[in-house]
Amino acid sequence: MKTCPWNLEGLLAEGLARYEFKAPDGRDLPPFTAGGHIDVVIAPEYQRPYSLAGDPADRSHYVLGVLREPPESGGRGGSALMHRAFREGRRVFVSRPVNHFALHEDATHSWLMAGGIGVTPMIAMAHRLHALGKPFDFHYSAASRTTAGFLKDLAQAPWGHQVQYHFKDEGQRADLMQLLPDFAPGQHVYTCGAPRFMDGVFEAATAHGWPSDALHREYFSVPEADAWVNQPFELLLQKSGRRLQVLAERSATDVLAEAGVGVSVKCSDGLCGVCALPYDAQASDAVEHRDFVLSHQARQHKIILCCSRAQQAGGVISLDF
Ligand code: FES
Questions:
Q1: CA 126, CA 252: separation in Å to the nearest integer?
Q2: Which of 118, 130, 168, 276 is placed for a possible disulfide with 193 were both Cys, Cβ 3.0 to 4.6 Å?
């Protein structure tokens, strides 16, 4: 964790503020990669992840966009407190950057599909792709210009002319089926925004023949999910041969912690990815992946233990641990 004073450049749009964090001694901050985020300690009980929206090549400061989510919209108080309490010069603690939404830098073409505040990781991705000289399309959908953030950052970016805006109140709602082309090998699409928007991007891409490994999304909050039924199952720790029983009302992370096996847990919602461990798919029974962070490809060898479980009662999950 690092202590940083920050500068508030001001409200970007209705309920959306832009923050800049700098190291107290003015040194470069730890490096980050496009799509990465930091955790901000807003108060002891509020630690929230925010995507980094700056240029990964510029380590003089981190840029964040924070949307105030009132309780009636499902907010849990962190963003509202940040808007209220964070003022210029305040020293705050943030984590080192982590990335669960990494860019495929070898892509032949990248499609950046942003919805609302989901524009933040896309800005870092566009900076990186531009630096690499890689082609990309950038579509930014928002309800209106007054609610869309980072318009100034986008206009000033050297690649800003590539951004195509879709403002609903101006009758420019994005026609995702029309915007996305048929899949060609080497292409990747990234989306971040409201779950319904990201579902629309995935559905359009899938209809155009895009395979799941070329589709990437990042959730800010837990979307409405299927009503899962928990089954009791067994964890096999391959390296020690220990077997741990996970009852229906427990999570694998609870059981591991009780057994003295340290697995980091942060969100407990399948969003942050810190509790991921490698598992042996060949030696395991079917896994019910309930997370919102791993790609289809990653799920072949990793499991998010705070929420995922064996599909069938009595199933065994063999952890490479
Ligand atoms: S603790 Fe965040 S995904 Fe498991």
A1: 38
A2: 118
**Ligand 1 proximal residues by C-beta, below 6 Å:** 265-268, 270-275, 291, 304, 306
Q: Which amino acid is at 25?
A: D
Q: Structural domain boundaries of the chain?
A: 2-94, 109-218, 233-319
CB 60 within 8 A of CB 43: no
Closest CA to 37 of 260, 256, 267: 267
Topology (CATH) of 233-319? Ubiquitin-like (UB roll) (3.10.20)
Task: Tokens 């002891």: give the residue.
Answer: 44
* Assigned CATH class of 109-218: alpha beta
Q: How far is CA 321 from the centre of its chain?
A: 26
Q: Which of 74, 66, 59, 57 is nearest to 39 (CA)?
A: 66
The residues, any chain, with a CB within 8 Å of residue 130's CB and separated by 6 or more, are 136, 157, 158, 159
Per residue in 253-262, pLDDT tens?
999 999 999 8
Per-residue CA distances from 177 to 11, 167, 169, 319 (Å): 33, 17, 20, 40
> Which atom of ligand 1 approaches the CA of 306 most closely?
4
H or E segment and range at residue 140: strand 136-142
Burial class (CB in 10 A: 0-12, 13-18, 19+), 64: buried
3-state secondary structure of 192: strand
Instruction: Name the one residue in this structure whose structure tokens are 């479980």.
Output: 309
Expressed in angstroms and rounded, the spacing between residue 23 Cα and the centre of ligand 1 is 28
Return the SS3 of 287: strand
